[in-house]
């Protein structure tokens, strides 16, 4: 049986003037127990070479987010909400609220 490849939806990488990096990767995949919504994603905000905010659904871990060294479950709704939550968290971090 041929394998079905993930279809890339988005991959952007942006370096802010201060050197911080925002990288967003999203793929459409076959729905599975691990990814019932049919999406694989990785969104990360890197400050001074270290991830301070991340949203992903790595194999076997389900939907979750990282705040510095903390990891918590994330309730995935859709890609738009995912992006909005990620960028809101970046703003909160910049304001010192995370």
Quickly list its features.
single chain, 1 helix, 98 residues, alpha+beta
Model description:
By secondary structure, the chain is an alpha+beta fold. It has one domain (7-82). The protein has one helix at residues 79-94; strands at residues 7-15, 21-28, 39-47, 50-56, 64-67, 70-73. The chain has a 6-stranded antiparallel beta sheet with strand order 1-2-3-4-5-6, covered by helices on one side. The longest helix is centred in the C-terminal third of the chain and has 16 residues, at 79-94. The chain starts with 6 loop residues before the first strand and ends with a helix. 14% of the residues are buried. The mean pLDDT is 93.
Please describe the topology of this protein.
Blueprint: E1 7-15, E2 21-28, E3 39-47, E4 50-56, E5 64-67, E6 70-73, H1 79-94
Antiparallel strand pairs: 1-2, 2-3, 3-4, 4-5, 5-6
Order of helices and strands: EEEEEEH
Number of helical elements: 1
Number of domains: 1
How would you write the strand order of the largest sheet? 1-2-3-4-5-6
Low-confidence parts = none
Task: Work out the radius of gyration.
Answer: 14 Å
Outline: globular
Structural class: alpha+beta
Helix fraction by DSSP (H/I, runs of at least 4): 10-25%
Strand elements, count: 6
Report the mean per-residue pLDDT as an integer.
93
Largest sheet: 6 strands, antiparallel
First-last Cα distance: 46 Å
Residue fraction in strands: 35-45%
């Amino acid at each position: 049986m041929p394998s079905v490849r993930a279809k890339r939806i988005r991959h952007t990488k942006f370096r802010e003037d201060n050197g911080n990096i925002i990288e967003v990767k999203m793929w459409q995949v076959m729905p599975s127990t691990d990814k019932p919504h049919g999406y694989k994603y990785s969104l990360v905000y890197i400050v001074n070479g270290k991830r301070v905010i991340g949203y992903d659904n790595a194999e076997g871990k389900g939907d979750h987010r990282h705040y510095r060294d903390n990891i918590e479950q994330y309730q995935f709704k859709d890609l738009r909400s995912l992006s909005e939550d990620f960028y809101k968290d970046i703003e909160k971090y910049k304001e010192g609220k995370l």
